[in-house]
Amino acid sequence: MASKQDANDLSFSSRLSRLTDRITHRTSAQRWGSRGSEGGINLTGVEIEEYDQFLSSAKALWTLIDQQRLIALDALHKRMLEYHNNIHVKETALHPMLAAEAEENRELMVVQALKFAEDKVEKPFSVTFGDLPSFCRKVKQEGAAESNSVWWIHIRDLIALQTIAQSFDMHDLIATGFQDLRAHSTFIPAFGEALLSTVTCLRENSDFNMYKMYIYISKHVVITFQAELLPDIMDPELSSPDKLVNHLFENYIQVRKRCLKYGPAYLLYEIALNTLKALDSSMEFLSYALSYFNKVVHLRLLHRERLAILVKMHMISSGIRFFRGLVSEASGNVRTFVNTALDSFDPRPSGFGRMLHTNVIQEHHIPYLMDLLDSCEFVMTSLSHQIDESELLEQKLEATMQMRATNTSIVLSLIATIFLPLTFFAGIYGMNFSVDGGFSIPMLNSPNGPVIFYWMCGGKSDPWRYLLRGESVLM
Hints:
17 helices, Beta Polymerase, domain 2, single chain, alpha+beta
């Protein structure tokens, strides 16, 4: 009995959150595919029916946290518009302050490294700035000696960039690409190396934050860096430098086998896919918001409530288009990456093809790159469907406003139809012309005048015969 009462005492939001989390977890696993032998996870009919019945029978709920999330999303979009309205020039050289700042932080942990080797399983470890030059030399020597080992170097502080770029002979444009803080995805190929950067938006509690993931790939090394774009300066917060790659670092044993088999290109695929999946939390909020407003739009809404919903719908539509723009840029860069990789296997490859041939991309990498492109296209399709739903909902809201105005006009027309003849009669018989003037209103001095006037207003035939034909009225 106690357990039943506890279940009944659960609030609507907690029950909805549990059902949504359970179904979202399983649909996400089905969406992105299973890495194991199960080949995907399917929802049961009971869960789908339970979820649909719960949403259809429950009252629509829009909490204060949802309102804060919507405001945060709109604020992020406004910051991006203000940012792009300013002139921005991409730097083509490493910032000179990096080296000066680095000398004062030699004990700072600037890099998190992980080695995938066949002989033993190694755990991720951190490297200080003072030990960074010797560490880079070690990685370079092992890469030349061990053909099957793969190093993953994640930069936690950008002061390590100059040392890493010089140690691994990065192309100048690739090295400066790590400092490009524009909300724009890029793909920079060079001979034997390439840089792919993607932008994603992550929902964190009641806030939205935008991150950019930089992925550098060469023959034996993958170098990544995460940067937060357009942070809210009015509400500063500490951002984890490895938020988007924590999951991969924690499950490095599962990634190790395929990295050793397929090389750095597979690790690029996992990191890029994990970055794209981070957008799921934002898309889930937008889907819930659209579902909520679809439930609350009806004819009985007050005018101010309609205006408030319309403003929120514009904010949601702007957020969806904002996300679609980010994914569209990432999809275009991945498509360029795939085309470059396919061109590298042509008997007479072009310039881009020769850049990535044998050193970076091989034939068994193509299916993973195609799967990454397909994932981008899937997110694009989902966001396009959300845009269509938001447009339909805005049209529905405008239609309800127009229908309410039409119903009001019908009521006013009906009232006018009833009272216009009565007003005409009242005006005629309110002139009070006397007999002495040579003309008078009929029944002006008649004792039966009020009764006859009421009959006329009611559409009776006897008073009209009395007026038009001079017949007597029987009382």
